[in-house]
Amino acid sequence: MDYIYVFSTLATGLILGSFMSVLVFRLDVRSGIISGRSECPRCLTRLKWYDLVPLLSFIYLGAKCRYCKNKISAVYPAMELATAGVFVTYSFLNGYSSLNSFYELAIIFILLALLFSDYIFYILPDKLIIAGFLISLAYFLLFKFEIVGSSLITGLVLSATFAILNIVSGGRWMGLGDAKLAFFIGFVLSYPSGVWAILISIWIGAIWGIVLVLLKRANLKTHLPFGSFMAAVAVLLIIFQKHEIWIPLIPRL
Ligand SMILES: [Zn+2]
């Protein structure tokens, strides 16, 4: 592992993280394909390339817009750093020279975009889920045909469970977006990893909720971004599933 390799992976991750923030915010605000150029959300000044250098512009500008001096949300550098960190960790553990690693990084990118979208807006955009599903379906049809059946069944059973919970609770426990995301994760991770991903997310979500209630930061009606937990656990499973350091509880694929 040499420095150039680490640096180039880090830079790629930061750039992709920057692209992700554009994707997440535009998908929410306009629900359309990314169009136009980047602008300050407050003063609407079109930003120059040197205002948009991932992470560095944020630090250099002291978290303020160059033109109107309004604060820039820390969400942008957080997304860039999180994406870069995940990409470096993935490539350190799995390399990124094979077709399989390109595929897995594409899925990780979409899962991270869903994670942030749900965390910030409580929205899991259909377009992201459909794009991820189609990428995964194409990859499986070409290279892992034998798991297409079990992947489809895993996704359908998990999403049906969520859909029932949604109906029973009148949409209070789970949103329909969660059901769609559960299908996507079940399909990508297949059986048994997909089931584990959802179970672990439920445990983490429950612990998170209890801690928030104990800290009086939430009550039983507070909406938890459950999709974010599912996406985060799925990303971790994809990164670590080929490695001994993963909890022995979970059978590897
Ligand atoms: Zn501005």
TrEMBL record:
One of its GO terms (cellular component) is plasma membrane. The chain crosses the membrane at residues 6-27, 75-93, 105-122, 128-145, 152-174, 194-215, 222-240. It is a multi-pass membrane protein. Residues 12-90 form the Prepilin peptidase A24 N-terminal domain. One of its GO terms (biological process) is signal peptide processing. GO terms for molecular function: aspartic-type endopeptidase activity. Its main location: membrane. Residues 106-210 form the Prepilin type IV endopeptidase peptidase domain. It comes from the Bacteria. It is found in: Cell membrane. InterPro entries: Prepilin_IV_endopep_pep (IPR000045), Prepilin_pept_A24_N (IPR010627), Prepilin_peptidase/N-MTase (IPR050882). Keywords: Cell membrane, Membrane, Transmembrane, Transmembrane helix. Belongs to the peptidase A24 family. This is Prepilin peptidase. It comes from Candidatus Yanofskybacteria bacterium RIFCSPHIGHO2_01_FULL_41_53.
